Amino acid sequence: MSLDLKVIQLHELPEILDFELKKQSELGLSEDDKIFESWHAKWRKESLEHYLPLGWSFLAREQEGQLSGYFLAQPLLFFEGMTQTLWVEHLQFSSLQARDQLCELAYKLAREKHFQKVVLPNQSTVSNAIKHLKPENWGPHFLQLITSKM
User: Fold this and answer.
1) How far is CA 8 from CA 22, 29, 39, 107, 143, in A?
2) 64 phi/psi in degrees, rounded to 5
3) Range of 16's domain?
């Protein structure tokens, strides 16, 4: 079963926040820890207000309309000698299917737009999803995928 993938709209911001708070609850954090975590989280409200209008962030929905995952991204221009890099700063998902489809979408989007690479968070589950694309380490927190011949 395929998920519905689409650009996140600003009016979906509260749903993203609820999704993240639910993920925090699954980790068993105390209410104080949840508040402290949300202050510097990549998905905090101010961050979402920046990323969502750019039009490079996508979400995955199940057929029933339930949010299954999303990523926050933006293009980096003329960075490290590359014309364009798609930087996926944050990726969150509730299923491996959402993870796989969102990673594939980021890679295909970068290729389609003629970007030279895509940078994804270096999480073990993400590296499993993209290992067939031969990711390389890009610092301690990110992986890069070359999307064009160099």
Assistant:
1) 19, 27, 22, 17, 23
2) -80, -5
3) 4-146
Q: Indicate the burial class of 111 (C-beta count within 10 angstroms; 0-12, 13-18, 19 or more).
A: middle
CATH number of the domain to which 42 belongs: 3.40.630.30
How far apart, in whole angstroms, are the C-alpha atoms of residue 66 and residue 89?
Answer: 23
Residue 65's nearest CA partner among 99, 15, 14, 22 is: 15
Residue 65 falls in which region: left (phi positive, over 0), alpha (psi -120 to 50) or beta: left
Number of continuous H segments (helices) and E segments (strands) in the chain: 5, 7
pTM of the predicted model, to two decimals?
0.88
| Choice between 1 and 101, residue whose per-residue pLDDT is larger | 101
Give the number of domains in the chain: 1
